Amino acid sequence: ATGNDADSDRHGIVTPDGGLMNPNHFLAVAIEYLFTHRPGWPADAAVGKPVDIVKIRYDLPGNDGSGNRQYVQEFIQLRNVSGRPVNLTGYRVQDDGAKHTFAFPRNFVLGAGKTVEVHSGKGRATGSIQYWNTTSFVWNNDHDRATLRDGRGKVLETCGYVGTHAKGGATKTC
Predict the structure, then answer these.
(1) Which of 7, 77, 96, 130 is the most buried (most CB within 10 A)?
(2) Close Cβ partners of 172 (under 8 Å, ≥ 6 residues apart)
(3) pTM for the whole structure
(4) What does the alpha-carbon distance between residue 150 and residue 78 come to, in Å, rounded to a whole number?
(5) pLDDT more than 70, % of the chain
(6) How far apart are CA 92 and CA 151, in angstroms?
(7) Using one digit for the tens of pLDDT, what is the confidence trace for 14-40?
(8) How far is 96 from 145, CA to CA, in rounded Å?
(9) pLDDT at site 98
(10) What letters, b where the CB count within 10 A reaches 16 and e where it falls short, cover 70-89?
């Protein structure tokens, strides 16, 4: 049934045991139904962003130094927040001004609730660690901004910081 409350400022679904249903609960149930009963929908169909920037490790403890052993300590971490696996083919991470761009490899799937770190420098990629394959640091110590784009180029999120030049290193939680 549908209905309004006495002063007509709310309307929606009325349930026999709970009265007027919270509209967010109704939407959550409707969205879940659509995603589970539409097998023809693409796997990356989502409400909201499926992947989130968690943090950026941009400043190492002490002096940065140079060389791959230092570069790979710098990273950005992403988490799949969609509740189901997401194919990150075509997804990109960029620094401010797109001086550095990382593109996820073809058929890279991030499991539901899982994280992946994209490290500066070079290394052997795994399901949870990827590399920019650079011969330098990616993230500036004084300030920078990460941009996450989906396979169509749509900006899903940005995360910026102003560095502190802390002796113990610095990480921005987004």
Answers:
(1) 130
(2) 55, 56, 58, 159, 160, 161
(3) 0.74
(4) 13
(5) 82
(6) 7
(7) 777 777 776 666 676 777 777 677 777
(8) 5
(9) 78
(10) bbbbbbbbbbbebeebbbbe
